[in-house]
Amino acid sequence: MSSKFKGRMKTQRYALRTQEDMAILENHTFLFIPNVNSPTLNFLAGLVAKEGGKVINDMNHMDTETIVLITDSFVSERQSIIHEDFLRKESDLDIDYIYDYMVKNSVKCVRVSKVSKWLKDGKLTISEAELVHLAPIDKENSTDGNISLDSESATDVEETDGDEKRPCEHRDEAQETPKGSDGEHSRSVETTWSKNELVIRFLDILAHRYKVKGDSFRSRGYNLAKIGIQRLSHEIESGTQAQKEVSNVGPSIAKKIQTILETGSLPGAHESPQFEKNLQYLSKCHNVGAYTARRWANLGLKSFVEVSQKFPNELRIDWPILFGWSFYEDWSIPIPRQECSEIEKIINQELKLVDPECKMEIQGSYLRGADYCGDLDMLFYKKNCNDTTELSSIMEEVAIRLYHRDYIKCFLQLTPKICKLFAPKILERFKKCNLQVETITPSNERIKKFYFGFKIPESTANYENHKSLLSPNDQFMSLNTKVGNPCRRVDFFSCKWSELGASRLQWTGPKEFNRWLRMIAINKQMKLTQHGLFDKNDTLIESFDDTKIFQLLDQPYIAPEERNHVFKKRRSK
């Protein structure tokens, strides 16, 4: 056989193997969680598509054969999902809906790093050991992850109509249920609140009720109605008036508002069964998602100390929950705008000492003009700097300096430096609730976002009517403020200088505005992410100037303070 013929045969075999490799993901559908916005995940999504796989961007296209790919940093060594609050914060998807769908339909979920393995091996295989579990596996107390709602939790006040099924606002505007929402001292509170405050209070109860039931559409409807009434500068006198003046109030919510205004109450709102009370209580803790709270409540757990006794490994794996427990009351209190500005000033003063060229600004509902915020998102950037590792180092140094100055009370993610500094405090929390843990391990990945509890020393505000209280059994873990300013949730994140405009769009929100703008891009055969506006060939068109992004989408520029109202204006046309 001639060498020329051998070479041709070798080339043909290589071509056949390449064709087979290109088809290994064919007929498979994939959903990335939390998103594909980062360069690495976007690259992997591109590889999946090139290998024949279909990448979907929302849960409406999910089916029972969909494979969910979750970022490795949200998966523990025991193959369970961790850091749920951060996962929700980074995703535009309805995570609770996805969780429920996955459980009910046995949808496979694996680490996103498995994509590289499949491409290397030339075939898609998923073993039982590689599956990611929604419910952490506790060897001491194993339980079935396929938990459904207790029949008691289906208790409803009244059915809602289609007008209430509004998409949700940005997460940082959703405030916790005020003190007294469980009826314990509701009568005494009602007599001292304004009409608007009373309506807001009951809408908040209903929003949280449906959230923990997993009915995100109704929960969003009540939340948006609540937020709309919070923005009014005058008192609501009737349900009809509310329906006319608040864009997110439909006929059914208007009827409830009328009942509240006439009677000072809402039939059934304070008649929740014990199951639902437990569910609401557990789900308000930082880093405890609705799915996890439902599973705990279904097992009869009603306090965090009971969780620590029955499922100790869940808290060992997802230790930020310990600080959600410890600061449970403080983190339920809305942050006044004035305090937000003071926190921004303190952080900027420290930032100037670390790197005078680096800038920081608050994003989210604060930028949209909100009087109160749930937490604070701080965006760091530096002129002509596209090195996120450099920005990460700056944020880390600022955070450490703020910790030494006693502004930062707890870290919720660990670099090696922060771990060395803060690990003793984590171990102390474990010891406090009788959990045996010897060492704390920092993240193996380069952290580019920092989450923590932040406290400024003084405040004259009265927060009692807005506080969610720890149960007596859980009080021994409390680090909540008795006098003075509460501890606050503050997050640092960064963006490349070249992507400043796109990042501002993403983090200003609200989420529904972002989805609306992305749909406009899709209709124009473009793609909009926090990294920029891209054409149909994934070529970057614009990322630095957000006003140009609006122009390229043939839309007038909408100022941040107007973005909450864009849908109201469009519906009224």
Which whole number gives the mean pLDDT?
A: 80
Give a quick account of the main beta sheet: strands, pairing sense, barrel closure: 5 strands, mixed
Distance between the amino and carboxyl termini: 78 Å
CATH hierarchy, class of the largest domain: Alpha Beta
How many individual helices? 22
**Largest beta sheet: what is the strand line-up?**
6-8-11-10-9
Q: Considering DSSP H and I runs of 4 or more, what fraction of the residues is helical?
A: 40-55%
The count of DSSP E runs of length 2 or more, i.e. the number of strands, is 14
- The oligomeric status of these chains comes to single chain
**Can you name the CATH architecture of the largest domain?**
2-Layer Sandwich
User: Radius of gyration in whole Å, from Cα?
Assistant: 25 Å
CATH topology of the largest domain: Beta Polymerase, domain 2
Structural class: alpha/beta
What is the CATH superfamily classification of the largest domain? Beta Polymerase, domain 2
Q: How many distinct folded domains?
A: 4
Strand content: 5-15%
The gross shape turns out to be: globular
Unreliable spans? 4-21, 137-192
